[in-house]
Design a protein that fits this description.
This protein is of the alpha+beta class. The protein is 71% helix and 10% strand. It has 21 helices and 17 strands. The chain has helices spanning 22-25, 41-53, 128-139, 143-150, 154-160, 165-175, 183-208, 215-271, 273-349, 355-414, 422-492, 520-557, 569-651, 654-658, 661-740, 746-752, 756-787, 794-859, 863-887, 921-940, 961-978; strands spanning 2-9, 18-21, 30-35, 79-88, 91-104, 107-119, 122-125, 151-152, 561-562, 565-566, 892-896, 902-906, 912-915, 949-953, 981-986, 997-1002, 1012-1015. The strands form four sheets. Strands 2-1-4-5-6-7 form a six-stranded antiparallel sheet. Strands 8-14-15-3-16-17 form a six-stranded mixed sheet. β1 (2-9) and β2 (18-21) form a beta hairpin. The protein is flat. The two termini are 24 Å apart.
Length: 1016
């Protein structure tokens, strides 16, 4: 990540908006952030983290307080705003977060107003949740990892290098974020064990509930079901005979009841006829009255409209008088404002002020202050040039010694014998071949067993499908028989007595019985459904047979061969013995080669270290020469700059060259006060001109309003004449309609009017009566024809109905018994299958429980966390050792043992090894710096893109001037090598002269302003 721009407002001591241009600050790669303690240097980091992650790490200390972020709002601010622009690889990102103080349940609360994440100019997230998701996807680092990566935790490492035993391991776990592999992982395994035990108990209890389930019990229930089915079929046949007789009697009963009902309906309709005739007369008179009433209403509306127009005409005439009065008043007011404007303009011209003189004084003061600063810096550069010369002489002597030692060790390395690893590769190839055979055999064995189980299940399903096919064929045959019987009925139902039959030629025809439930269309539909089921059944049987054949072929394919031998359990054991023998030979050979390799690596490491030391000293000498030349150039440039500034001052006038800063400041203040008076006069003149302009504009509007008002008066006068003509025409139309419909007075019209609901009601009543009368007459005639010559007995009908209901109840009871028996049989079969499945599940669960308990026992000892921590530390130590070796010109290297204790190897002192805690304060700082940098590099591996900068926060107070120079040189070397930007956060003034680009953080002044920043 590469920062570009940061804006802060309302956060901590940053009251006003402050802008930090990181592109300008990082031009040289190394920059410093300077300021007093408490000035707000660390708040810059808080702002960056708040922008990216929506949180401030220190807010976790206020976790129990409601709205913790509110505690970071500036006490004089009502809002908090952060804008951060940065680059990740080729992409540019912008994050905006805005908060404002508001009320919630009567208390102040910091509420979110806007949250945006912009990628390459396009908004990709507009809420806290979406931004968090996108940041996790783009960065790949948590807030903790980011903080440890960007701000190197030197304080922790300085403390850490001196710790021992348990305290060191605890701190290591925190630095490497190993908590998820320690107690958290143990808790997860413990919860899993607990869950598995609970499941074991639950399954054991379920197995007890299956004790009464057996195949014999299922067979007993199936025998009882077959007996009930036989009884039910016999009762169904009896029901069919009785149903036939009942249908005949029920049809006759229905005919007699219909005749009685329609006779009563006709008598009732004859009694209602007089009322219907009255409604017809009332409907006709009401419709005529409604027509006249409609014209009367229109006449009254036009009369009201005429009154409204006359009223509006009167109002417009009054408005015209008011507008004429307003125009006269406006003319007088404009004349007064013009006179006042001329008076103020005369006063402005008498004020003594020269902008040119003020600008000259500003430039002279600026140049005089710069000259004073440059002269002080010139003295410091002269001292540094002498110090650099002494250091360069010492480095030349050290370089000669290192070159001689490098030449000696290089000759020893060339004489070292070559290491041949071909035998180890052969052993490994052989072992890997055996391992592939073992894995293939186990995988295919397991797959083979699963296929055999699946084949067994498929054969059971096939047997069930064949039985279903037999039942479907039987049902189809029964329906075909019914279809043939119904074809005879369909043919006979249209024959008439005396006409010949088209099949046999007879003129006498028997009446065939027909059951509605056996209609030919219903039978065809049922036949079609059964045929579809048969097709589906045949397809399913084919699929099952195909799957069985495929599985059997797959079982044959799953056989495993090794060197043309079919592998079985005995051959597998022989191969495992061979593999173990090769494994032992491999381990012995690796130990032998490891001893040789270790000796060679130690010599190579020593040669590499000496080579790097020589290279580093040469680079350092080169850098010292460059620095010396740079300082000498700077000295000359400063002298020239001072002369140039004095010449600049002289250009503005010789009188300025000898004047002091105090007198110039005094004259500038007088000019500024006079300028304020001119501004006040200009403001008043501007106000008067605006007032005159508004008055003239209002005058034009008033004149325009008079013209519009006159047009309105003319329009209303025309409208009154038009309404008089319409009213006269409507009055004549009312008289004509009253004469047409024989109405004498308006009151008579009002009495005869009917509303829409009444009209609809009369119409519906009349139409309904006529429809019902016609329908009842037709149905009564039909009923008389149906009962002609027939007799009906209600007692006989009731008797056969009782018999019918009794048989029906018996059949229903038998069906319920059959359904209950089928459900009991199905349920018992399911329980039997479930019992087998649960038994298998219990066996697998207990196997998993044993593994989980074993894992819990092993993880409780903490060995796994210790192993991971040690591995990570060695990777960090290797990188840190590289930096230490480079900074100390090849003298020191870092080393850690299995107990994670730190040692330094003094290469210049015959490779003596000693604890890091025995080093001086400055040396411990260097080791801490290198460990922190290596840790940052390790944590960045978790991210998706490299972080191209980091901050060093304090830690320089324990270094003397010479060591501080060495550390700064090392930091500059690391910056160039790693191609990153480095920011140093400190309050030490000694570092200012060593860093070109600086961000000065000025402490807030209570009651006046907040923290201010500027690049110097």
């Amino acid at each position: 990540m590469r920062p570009i721009l940061l804006e802060i407002e309302g956060l901590q001591s940053y009251k006003e908006k402050q802008v930090i241009d990181f592109e300008k600050l990082c031009e040289n790669g190394l920059f410093g952030i300077f300021g007093e303690t408490g000035s707000g240097k660390s708040t810059i980091l808080d702002a960056m983290i708040l922008a990216i992650y929506g949180d401030i790490p220190r807010a976790s200390e206020l976790a129990n307080e409601k709205n913790g972020l509110k505690n970071f709002l500036n006490t004089s601010s009502k809002k908090l705003e952060i804008y951060f622009k940065f680059a990740l690889g080729e992409d540019t990102y912008e994050i905006k977060r805005k908060y404002a103080l508001g009320k919630s349940k009567g208390q102040d609360e910091l509420k979110t107003k806007e949250q945006l994440l912009i990628k390459n100019g396009e908004i990709i997230a507009d809420s806290s949740t979406k931004i968090k998701s996108q940041i996790e996807e783009e960065f790949g680092l948590s807030i903790g990892d980011f903080l440890r990566t960007v701000v190197l935790p030197q304080g922790k490492f300085s403390e850490f290098v001196k710790l021992k035993g348990k305290d060191k391991r605890i701190m290591l776990e925190k630095i490497f974020a190993m908590e998820r592999y320690g107690q958290r992982l143990q808790d997860r395994i413990r919860e899993r064990v607990k869950g598995l035990k609970a499941k074991d108990k639950e399954l054991s209890q379920e197995m007890e509930s299956f004790l009464e389930v057996s195949i014999e019990k299922i067979q007993e229930l199936e025998t009882l079901r077959d007996e009930r089915l036989s009884i039910k079929e016999r009762k169904v046949e009896e029901e069919k005979e009785i149903e036939k007789r009942f249908v005949e009697l029920n049809s006759l009963k229905k005919d007699f009841e219909e005749f009685s009902f329609y006779s009563k309906e006709k008598e009732q309709l004859d009694g209602e006829r007089d009322d219907i005739e009255y409604k017809k007369a009332k409907l006709l008179c009401g419709r005529n009255a409604n027509e006249v009433k409609k014209v009367i209403v229109e006449f009254e509306e036009k009369e009201e409209e005429k009154k409204r127009v006359i009223k509006s005409l009167t109002q417009l005439k009054l408005k015209e008088e008011a507008l004429l009065s307003n125009i006269d008043n406006l003319n007088k007011e404009i004349e007064k404002e013009r006179e006042k404007n001329i008076e103020i303009q005369d006063k402005r011209e008498k004020v003594d002020y020269s902008r040119d003189e003020e600008e000259k004084i500003n430039e002279v003061l600026k140049n005089k202050e710069i000259v004073k600063s440059k002269e002080g810096y010139l003295k410091r550069i002269a001292i540094e040039v002498e110090e650099l010369k002494e250091i360069r002489d010492k480095k030349n002597i050290e370089l000669q010694d290192k070159r001689e030692e490098l030449e000696t060790k290089s000759r020893e390395l060339l004489a070292f014998p070559e290491i041949d690893r071909e035998s180890i590769d052969e052993y490994r190839v052989k072992i890997e071949g055996y391992q592939r055979v073992f894995e293939s055999y186990q995988e295919k064995k397991q797959e083979r067993e699963l296929n055999l189980v699946r084949i067994g299940k498929l054969k059971e399903e096939l047997e069930s499908l064949h039985q279903e096919k037999i039942e479907l064929e039987r049902a189809v045959e029964e329906l075909e028989s019914k279809k043939r019987e119904n074809l005879a009925y369909e043919l006979a139902k249209d024959l008439k007595e005396g006409e010949p039959c088209p099949v046999c030629g007879s003129i006498h025809h028997m009446k065939l019985e027909h059951k509605e439930s056996e209609d030919i269309e219903i039978i065809k539909k049922e036949l079609k459904n059964l045929e579809n089921k048969k097709v589906n059944n045949t397809v399913t049987i084919g699929k099952k047979n195909g799957e069985i054949e495929s599985l059997e072929r797959n079982i044959e394919r799953l056989k495993v061969y090794y060197e043309d031998r079919l592998i079985d359990e005995d051959i597998l054991k022989e191969l495992m013995t061979d593999r173990d023998r090769f494994q032992k030979s491999l381990e012995e050979e690796e130990k032998r080669l490891e001893r040789l390799s270790s000796a060679k690596k130690e010599l190579e490491y020593l040669v590499k270290g000496l080579s790097e030391s020589v290279k580093n000293i040469e680079l350092e000498l080169e850098r010292l020469m460059e620095k010396n030349e740079k300082q000498e150039r700077a000295y000359l440039e400063l002298e020239g700059e001072i002369c140039r500034l004095n010449s600049e001052i002289e250009k503005y006038g010789e009188e300025f060259l000898n004047q002091d800063i105090e007198s110039l400041n005094s004259r500038r203040e007088i000019l500024r006060e006079n300028y304020k008076k001119i501004e006040a006069y200009d403001l008043e003149m501007k106000r008067l001109r605006a007032s005159i302009q508004r008055g003239e504009s209002e005058l034009q509007e008033s004149k325009k309003s008079i013209d519009e008002n006159r047009m309105g008066i003319n329009r209303y006068e025309v409208e009154v004449k038009s309404l008089d003509g319409v009213i006269e025409k409507l009055k004549k139309q009312i008289d004509d309609l009253m004469s047409k419909y024989n109405f004498i007075t308006i009151e008579e019209i009002e009495d005869n009017c009917i509303n829409e609901i009444e009209e609809t009601s009369y119409t519906q009543d009349i139409n309904s009566y006529e429809d019902r009368y016609q329908k009842v007459t037709i149905l009564l005639k039909k009923s008389e024809e149906n009962i002609a010559g027939k007799e009906f007995s209600i007692e006989k009908w009731e008797e056969i109905q009782i018999v019918k209901e009794g048989i029906k109840e018996e059949i229903v009871q038998l069906i319920e018994d059959l359904q209950r028996l089928n459900m009991d049989i199905d349920e018992m079969k399911k329980q039997l299958a479930l019992s087998k499945e649960k038994g298998k599940e219990l066996k697998e669960l207990r196997k998993e429980l044993a593994i989980a308990e074993d894992l819990l026992s092993k993880f409780s000892s903490g060995g796994f966390v210790n192993y991971l921590t040690t591995r990570k530390l060695r990777g960090v130590m290797e990188n840190a050792s590289y930096y230490v070796n480079k900074i100390t010109n090849g003298r020191y290297k870092l080393y850690t043992d299995d107990e994670c204790d730190f040692y330094v190897i003094d290469v210049f002192n015959e490779g003596v090894k000693r604890r890091v805690g025995t080093l001086s304060g400055g040396e411990i700082f260097i080791v801490s710096l290198c460990l922190a940098l290596a840790l940052s590099k390790q944590l960045q591996l978790k991210g998706k893109v490299p972080l191209e900068f980091f901050f060093l926060d304090e830690g320089f107070g324990s270094l003397d001037s010479n060591l501080l120079d060495k550390v700064m040189e090392a930091i500059e070397s690391i910056r160039r090598e790693e191609n990153i930007n480095i920011g140093i956060i400190t309050h030490l003034e000694d570092l200012k002269v060593r860093i070109d680009k600086k961000l000065q953080v000025e402490k807030a002044i209570f009651g006046e302003r907040g923290t201010r920043v500027k690049i110097i």
